[in-house]
Amino acid sequence: MFIRDLKRYSKYATYSAVSELKSQVAGSYLGWMWWVLDPLLFMLVYTFVAAYIFGCEVDNFPLFVFLGLTIWNFFGSTVEGCVGIINSYSAVTKKAYIPKFILVLMKQFENLIKMLISVGISLVTIVVVQIPVTLNLLAFIPILIVYFVLAFGVGTICAYLGVFVSDLSHVISIFMRFLFYLSAVFYPLDRFGEGLLNIYNMICPTGFIIVQFRNVMMYGFGADYFRLFYWLVIGLILSVVGVSLLYRGEKDFMKVVF
Amino acid sequence: MSGIDTELAIDVKNVTIAYRNTTAVNYRIFLKNMLKPRKKQISAGNDFQAVKNVSFNVRKGETIGIVGENGSGKSTLLGAVAGVYGVDKGRITVRSDHCSLLSLGTGFQSRLSGYQNIFLSGYAMGFSKEEILASLDEIIEFSELGDFIQKPVKTYSSGMYSKLAFSISSVLTPEILLVDEILSVGDIRFRQKSYAKMKQMITDEHRSVIIVNHSTESLRGLCSRILWLHQGEGKMFGETDEVLDAYRKFMVG
Which CATH number do you get for residue B105? Predict the structure, then answer.
């Protein structure tokens, strides 16, 4: 059922994501420049705060922060966007039947495109500032795949809960802020000892992915495939739970949604 | 028996559709319920049943109408056939890949252009890119929107909005068409045009149609059978003239 719906409606998800991005571009003066400017400007803010106020000392610190933000934004925007998504697309879903996980995928595609643009900029920067490029860099692909699955799992569950619990959006935005500060976006995890770091990598998905991503992009390390697999399994479990919740809720969504 | 069944495009059997009282899923009620003894719970027992135990069917190529007062469950029933609302009891069988609700002024992403919305609606109805491209020119031409097709839908007047909606659904024709109060779209000229198109689509012998309408006269020319809903229950289902006469008598008194 999932595979069949995926085949049938994936066109809808991709087209909708692309046209959503196009309409965002059309609505502002600087257009698509904002997808580049947005992480760049935030990078300046966090670099200023972390480097000058808290005195973080990391080589290529702006790039360090930029990579963190690039990775974080995908997860943050996807999850926050998914909370009210069934409500906000009711104009479409009240007219024709669309499996609701397709809406989550759509949101993900939208943010994926933005993230890939940022990744592209980072790659250029890496060459420009002459960070040695190794084959390990290619490990960013499996890392992002695991990340995508994780975001899908969390997104589907949030989409389901968001229909019934209208207060969820408040709770989620606070929780996501907490997760953001926890995720090592603008600070290194040096002060964590070995043991604490092991626990951290097992409980904070975004932090783990961000650190992994930096390791392969900036430092030429290989990926931690064992833990990556661990998070893939968790992501798949969350996805199965989320998708089956969405299918089960199908009967009642449109009666609750306005 | 099975020989007759294969001739059916839509088969609705003993369908009941209930709206949960939305407070039942409110967490405050939920928490209160956890504290209260079972008897006093504010339960899902005060569900509102919009459609109660209704059965009807549509043969291949047939057009049927649904009539009834406001709030008698017509639109809910139509939504259930489209797969938008879930069914609580009973079963709905639809033998078609493309089945969608043609209703006035819904289904568009207002920030996107009319052009993009044609594709979105097409994909949402399960058509392929090639099928949409093949019908694209005809849709734009029929909608009479001209250059407005590239403007965001939120800038459209309500007439333009429904012209586009009508054009998409009437050119990208699903085998099963579900029409919710559409027979009067746009200005007088477009109304005549859409009525003619409508009639052409409905009389197409490959297409099965369900129309929901208040105007009994427009149904008389189009439908072969009528379902009369009264307070969610199927009061009558049969030949057009017979049902419409009874309905009129009932309504006028």
Answer: 3.40.50.300
Express each pLDDT in B162-220 by its tens digit. 888 888 878 887 778 888 765 566 778 888 888 788 778 777 778 888 888 777 777 88
Residue of B123, B149, B182 for testing the chain A interface, max A β-carbons within 10 Å: B123
What are the strands of the beta sheet with B8-19, ordered from one edge? B89-94, B8-19, B48-59, B233-239, B225-230, B63-67, B208-212, B176-180, B99-103
Render B186-242 in DSSP notation, one character per residue: SSHHHHHHHHHHHHHHHH-TT-EEEEE-S-HHHHHTT-SEEEEEETTEEEEEEEHHH
Q: In the numeric block, which tokens belong to residue A11? A: 């066109």
**Which is nearest to A152 in space by CA: A242, A245, A90?**
A242
A93–B84 C-beta distance less than 8 A:
yes
Mutation target to probe the A interface, by most A beta carbons within 10 A, among B15, B85, B149, B153 is: B85
The Cα of B186 is separated from the nearest Cα of chain A by a number of Å equal to 20
Q: Could you tell me which residues come within 8 angstroms of residue A142 by beta carbon, excluding any fewer than 6 positions away?
A: A223, A225, A228
Could you report the per-residue pLDDT of A221-240, keeping only the tens digit for each? 888 899 999 999 999 999 99
Domains of chain A, residue spans: 2-256
Count how many domains chain B has: 1
Supply the DSSP symbol for B150.
Answer: G
